[in-house]
Amino acid sequence: MVNTELTRRHLMKAAAATGLAGALGSRLAFAADEPLGIALVIPSPVGDVGWGHALAAGLEPIKAAYGDKVKVTILENIAEGPDADRIMTKTVADGNKVLIAGSFGYQNGALQIARRDPSVTVLHASGFQVAPNFSPFAAKYFQGTYLLGMAAAALSKTGKLGSVSAFAIPELITSINAFTLGAQAVNPAIEVSVVWVNSWFDPAKEQEAAKALIAQTCDVIFSNAQDTPSVVAACEEAGVYAFNLNSSMKKYAEKTYLGCVATDWSPFFKASVDAHVAGTFKGANAFLGVAEKVVEVVDWNPAIPADTMAKIKDLEAKIAAGSFSPFTGPIAKADGSEGVAAGATMADAEIIAMNWHVKGVATPLPK
After folding, report:
1. Alpha-carbon Rg of the chain, whole angstroms?
2. Torsion of CA 240, 141, 291, 12, to 10 degrees
3. Cβ 159 vs Cβ 191: under 8 Å
4. If you ran DSSP here, which 8-state letter would residue 88 be given?
5. 182 and 327 in contact (C-beta within 8 Å)?
6. What DSSP line would sit under 323-348, residue for residue?
7. Which of 53, 83, 59, 79 is closest to 71 using CA atoms?
8. Does residue 8 carry a pLDDT above 50?
9. Could you count the other beta carbons within 10 Å of the beta carbon of residue 126?
10. What CA–CA distance (Å, rounded) separates 193 from 119?
C-alpha cells in the first residue's frame, strides 16, 4: 500500500444519469484549522497509463481550485475484499470526508461506510448502488469502442478481432458489444473473440492472452480495462493493431496503436467535491460519456482509411448530440435471439445492466 500526496502531473446499474445537486442539508465541509480530506483507493498502481492513472489525473483540477484547503491521499494496490473494506474504513476514520472507491469490488464496503456516516461523500466506480451520500460512476466507453470497431474492421485483413478483458461485468460487456457492432457496420462478417483474465492488473497474464488471440489470427486487439500496456506492447511486437481504455498508451506501440477511448473524470470529481463543500451533494447514478466530455477517442492511427474516418467523425458528432446510439436495434444476441427490436434504443438503465453478448462475439460469457 502506498499513501502519497497527489502532485501536479503533466499530462456505473440501476438508474440513468442524473444531476449531482440536491438538498441534503447543510454541513461544514472545511474545518477551520484543517483541509478537506479526499481519499482515492485503487486496485492497481497509479502508473503512467491506465485506469488508476486516469482517476488520479482527474483529481488535479480539484487541487488546483482549492489549493491547501484540500488534502488528497492515494491508496494504491488495494485488493478487492475484506482488506479493502478495512482500509477504506480507516481512511474515513482518519478524517477523510470524500472517498473515491475506484473499483467495482469495493462496492459493499464503501456503501456501508456511507450509511454509517452521512457526513462522508462516497463516489464508487462502476457500481449500481445509490444512497443519499453515495454515487456510482461509470463511463460510456461503448460510445468510443463502437467508433474504434469501425476503424478495426476497415484495417483488419482476417475479419477476426480480439479482446483481452478484465472481468465480465456489464461495463466491459457493453464495450465489447459496441466494438463488435461498430466493426459489423463496416464488415458484417466480423467475428470477435474474448479472453477474460479476471484481473485488473496482471501484466504476464494479459500478455499471454494477447498472444493467444494473435495466434488465432485476430489482427486487431482491444485491451479492455487492462491497467498495464502489456497487451498494447505485445501487439506492437507482433505487428497487430491494438487500442485500450482510459489513457493513451501510444508510446508503447508507436506503429500499431489504433487509438484510445480516453476518460477525463475531472468534470465529475470537481462537481462532486463542489457539491460536498456546498452541502448539496445528492447521490445519483452518474453514467457519463462523450456529451459530458468524460469520454473522448484520441490518437487515431493515420492508417485508417479516409472514407472510414469521415464516417467515424460524423457518427462521433451524432453521439455527442444524442442523435445516435450504438445500441439501436435491430440487434441480435449471440444465441440468435432478439436483443433489441428494430427501431428501439436501449435506455441507460438497460445498458448499465447488460449481461449478454451480441451476435458476432464468438466467446461465451463465463458462467
Report:
1. 20
2. -170
3. yes
4. H
5. no
6. S--TTBB-EEBTTSSEEE-BT-B--H
7. 59
8. no
9. 25
10. 46
* Cell 453521439, located at residue: 319
Contacts (Cβ under 8 Å, ≥6 apart) of 56 = 6, 9, 40, 42, 46, 74
> Among the residues of 187-330, which ranges form H helices?
203-215, 230-238, 266-278, 306-321
Question: Which triple of cell numbers denotes residue 149?
Answer: 470497431
The phi and psi torsions of 198 (rounded to 5 degrees) equal 55, 45
Q: DSSP letters of 11-62?
A: ----S----SB--------SBTTBPEEEEEE-SS---SSHHHHHHHHTTHHH
Rounded Cα gap, residues 61 and 80, in angstroms: 28
Distance separating alpha carbons of residues 233 and 304, to the nearest angstrom: 20
Alpha-carbon distance of 143 to 320, in angstroms, equals 9
Three-state SS at 309: helix
pLDDT per position as a tens digit, 286-340:
999 999 999 999 999 999 999 999 999 999 999 999 999 999 999 999 999 999 9
The reported pTM is 0.89
C-alpha cell at 43: 486496485
Q: How far is the CA of 290 from the CAs of 75, 151, 320, 322, 351, in angstroms? A: 29, 18, 5, 9, 16
DSSP, collapsed to helix, strand or coil, labels residue 262 as: strand
Please tell me the predicted confidence (pLDDT) of residue 97: 98
Please say whether the beta carbons of 127 and 104 come within 8 A. yes
Tens digits of residue pLDDT in 231-241: 999 999 999 99
252 in Cβ contact with 193 (< 8 Å): no
- pLDDT by residue (tens digit) across 140-149? 999 999 999 9
Q: Which of 312, 305, 360, 318 is nearest to 335 (CA)?
A: 360
Q: How far does the chain reach from its first CA to its final CA, in angstroms? A: 32
Closest CA to 14 of 172, 123, 128, 136: 128
| 142: nearest Cα among 178, 168, 97 | 178
Quote the mean pLDDT of the chain: 91
pLDDT at site 367: 85
Contacts of 151 (CB under 8 A, 6+ apart): 258, 259, 300, 301, 304, 308, 309, 312
